[in-house]
Amino acid sequence: MSSNGTGLTDKVALITGAASGIGKGIAEKLAAAGVKLVVTDIDKAGLQKLSNAYGDRCVLCHVDVTVEADLERATAMAVEHFGRLDIAVNAAGVGGFARIVDQTEAQWDHIVDISMKGTFLSMKHEGRQMKACGNGGVIINIASLNAQQPAAGMSAYAAAKAGVEMLTRIGGMEMARHHVRVCAISPGLIATPATQDVFATPALYGGYMDNILLGRSGTVDDIANAALFLVSDAASWITGTTMLVDGGAANNRYPDFTKLPRTQQ
């Protein structure tokens, strides 16, 4: 496989949430650059569909990112199977919509556990393996525009993703001595299976379009291209920071979907 000038040929990457959406898109982009993959997801059926997608340069691993033993097993598998771990992309996450006064504790825990605790546990074991391998590495966390831009009805998700951005900054501080860079990508509205309801609801979609300076929603490829840059040698002096990939939406006010009729929220 060609490295496309990125210096990534035969490096090894572990990706969480890789059975669909942004995680899958990044896996495909890295595979095309010559990277060997450990593809993980909680969706067993989704993983099975990928069983022949990357050939013998990939291993699949069922992982629940809220279970520490799963992350410890997956990162060890990367080293056992391929001899090293150079790249990690933490794309597993989940959202939800509820006003603070209406949100249940269970809803809050579900979103925060997957989106923030899962990122922490992933970073912990990815960082340990990279340190042990001694080759340095790059960890990319998928945050969100809502880490920086508040959105009514999205308190748990926004708080969790803000936590991901801070974990990224602290990870960059702590892991630099081991030559491990830690960065985040904060996407705006991206067309994925998780956002299909937004695209199917004119009032929701219109609210987003009014907010995006470049006048279009993002694609998985937009995020995968950003990830490819951040893990490449071209980004070797970038760490502890977040790249916004949002079409300029952060410069506007997030749409207030709490004003819509309940049937459209």
Describe the structure.
By secondary structure, this protein is an alpha/beta fold. Helix 1 (21-32) packs across helix 8 (220-231), helix 3 (68-82) packs parallel to helix 4 (105-133) and helix 4 runs parallel beside helix 5. The chain is 42% helix and 15% strand. It has helices at residues 21-32, 44-49, 68-82, 105-133, 155-175, 196-200, 202-211, 220-231, and strands at residues 12-16, 36-41, 58-62, 87-90, 137-142, 180-187, 241-245.
Give a brief outline of the structure:
With 265 residues, the chain is an alpha/beta fold.
The ordered string of helix (H) and strand (E) elements is EHEHEHEHEHEHHHE
Q: How many strands, which pairing sense, and closed or not: the largest β-sheet? A: 7 strands, parallel
| Unreliable residue stretches | none
Total count of strands: 7
Terminus-to-terminus distance: 45 Å
The assigned structural class equals: alpha/beta
Rg to the nearest angstrom? Answer: 18 Å
Core attributes:
265 residues, globular, alpha/beta
List the helices and strands and how they pair.
Layout: E1 12-16, H1 21-32, E2 36-41, H2 44-49, E3 58-62, H3 68-82, E4 87-90, H4 105-133, E5 137-142, H5 155-175, E6 180-187, H6 196-200, H7 202-211, H8 220-231, E7 241-245
Helix pairs in contact: 1-8, 3-4, 4-5
